[in-house]
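Query form — protein Extracellular solute-binding protein

QUESTION: What is the three-dimensional structure of this chain?
INPUT:
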Amino acid sequence: MKEQRNMKKLLITLMALMMLPLAACGAKTPAGPETPAETPVETSAERPSYVRGEDEVTGKITVYTTMEETQQEALKTIWNKYYPNSQIEIQADSVGTLATRIRGDESSDADVVIGGLFAADGTTYHDILQPYTAVNDKEQLYHDKSGYYTYYDVQVMSLVVNPELRKELGIEINGYEDLLNPKLEGKIILAAPDASSSGWRQLQTMLAVMGDKFDDEKGWSYVEKLMKNAFSTTSSKDVYNLVINGEYVVGLSYESTVAALIKDGAPVENIYIEEGNTAMAGGAAIVKNAPNLTAAQAMMDLLASTEFQDMRAKESSGRGSNGKSILVDLPKEDTLNMVELDFDYLATNKASMIEKWNTLWAKTH
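ANSWER: The structure tokens for Extracellular solute-binding protein are given below.
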């Protein structure tokens, strides 16, 4: 009898042991303070090849820029995403004013200049800049032969028009020729080409599409007639702001800037010049003796990336220089009757062209 009881206990024990794996496979351990549920460990996304280590880029980076506010916010967003240990400080103005500030202030803490620097500048700003080639430069459609500029933008010109004021005048504005309408006398605002990048680009475009050949007397004759209807400012920002505020009917500006303003609700229209247009790569550069050189170099790499250029396209309708960047809210270049510019000619003759502009301006005003 005793042996039977022992055998029965043994069989029960064996059956219990056989059931343990099955229970372990099917059971769920309830989550609680003492037995927390397991959660997957989050791994940080791999940093793109053009982004440096988070701890490598620290301190303050001072940005001098011609970018309008929407583009500035896009720049801050991507910078803070990758470099939270580096504070970004932005000071915005025309490139002429920013360059004068750097040249005239030995205590200037500018690390980079972003915007207003173009392929046709030649050596104009080399005295305040230092060379650098972005790590992703091979993706770019445009390259600076001198090695100073990092391009992130392609600038096409346009007219910013206040539709209410135009309607009051009962006129159409579709291009340069329409700006000679006597009803627009004193109602046009443009930026001076010796102080503003947009002014210099507009002068190039006028001379390219309003003459029989670039920089001929026919083109300059148009420029002189336009001057009689226009007022001038030293700031690109003044042009679109004064049109938005209703002080002028039309201004000569950049397409992407106007498109971004419209996206933000500005009551203006972006008019592409029916006589033709020009395109030019614009970019950024590192200031000579930049206080935070590592951050400045990291900024150039970010600007050249598709990530930044795509973000800029979505947020402020920028036209990117990277061959892989997208186009948002802007027409393709092949629909704008583009005229090709001779960048070497522009770089060589900029001083004489600016001098001629100033002579005509003094004559007409």
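ADDITIONAL NOTE: Strands lie at 59-65, 86-92, 112-118, 129-130, 150-161, 188-191, 230-233, 250-254, 269-271, 279-287.
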